[in-house]
Amino acid sequence: MNKRLLIVTLGLSLATLASSANADAVLDYLTDFNGKYIGPSLEDNVRRMDTDKNGFADVFEVRAFLELQHGAGYEKQLLDKWEASASGKSCSTPFAKELYSDKTY
């Protein structure tokens, strides 16, 4: 499950970056004169995101990393949805509210 969350999180992070208006400028910055990528590796970025050092970057760590890079509120709607999913609060059907309450059993 942890690897799956990591892959989904990173894929969505990369998709967000690629869709930005500045994607060409970022690619220019991260490539040398031969067009070879010289920026940080995926592993480097995950290591930087993984603040609790548990081996993967969860959505909360990804959000903190992206907001440090791009400012508070960056991709707020998308990251709010991710956090709701990760917190188990994304199901809005009436019968599910009991399942997602703060009760511990």
Q: Please state the average pLDDT score.
A: 76
Strand content: under 5%
Biggest sheet descriptor: none
Shape: globular
Helix content estimate: 40-55%
Given as residue ranges, the uncertain stretches (5+ residues, pLDDT < 50) are none
Beginning-to-end CA distance, first to last residue: 22 Å
The total of helices stands at: 5
Number of domains: 1
Quaternary structure state of the chains depicted: single chain
Radius of gyration: 17 Å
Order of helices and strands: HHHHH
> What structural class do you assign from the helix and strand content?
mainly alpha
Number of strands: 0
Question: What would the keywords be for this entry?
Answer:
mainly alpha, 0% strand
Describe the protein.
By secondary structure, the chain is an all-alpha fold. The chain has one domain. The protein has 5 helices and no strands. The two termini are 22 Å apart.
